[in-house]
Amino acid sequence: MNPWPALGQEPPFVLPDDREVIVQFNARATERTRLELDLLPEPFVGRLDAPVVLLTLNPGVSDGDFALHNDPAFRDRIRACHRQDKVAWPYYYLAPEVTGPGARWSARVLGPLIRELSLGAVSRGVALFEYLPYHSRGFGHARLEVASQAFTMAAVRVSIASAAAIFITRGAKLWSTAIPELVGHPHLFTTRSTQNIVISPRNCPAGWDSAVAGIRQAG
Q1: 8 A C-beta contact, residue 152 and residue 44
Q2: Where do the domains of the chain lie?
Q3: Which residues pair with 36 in a beta bridge?
Q4: pLDDT per position as a tens digit, 4-55
């Protein structure tokens, strides 16, 4: 069952089943790894049934994120995604009116797909799943497990069963340990560069055709 529609309306933004573990972690965390609970968690961005899936580690914290998350319209986008409402821009960082670090990152990583297809098609056809849903300035959470991760892992397993094109962009060992079925998935791809994770014919030749075909078929 999707736990995210039950997220509280005021900070700290943490699910009840995750709270104790995260409070304990933050009590000894560094500034770099502390989980920022004033920001809405983003366990996934996009439609859970998208034909193209990106797997990464956790949402970051950059200049502008706090202001963006204080924008009621942007908060509404995140919560609509939590509920999986039908919206015009499921991958909300691609909505033309959304700005900030996440929008810039998404435009760069998905830029070749957008140019090949269209902004709307990629917003409908791509989903991003975070290994850990809570924001931090840097990742140092390989040993941290929270209850809400179970829903994310189940959603990725559904993507595997639906033959989605899955790109592990960060944390390959963590994802493969959590979901061993990924290792044998015939549509699992990585980019040639672990630093440059742009989905393009040159950086991911094996997965490019699958991604384009999946998005086109989804419409």
Answers
A1: yes
A2: 4-218
A3: 135
A4: 999 999 999 999 999 999 999 999 999 999 999 999 999 999 999 999 999 9
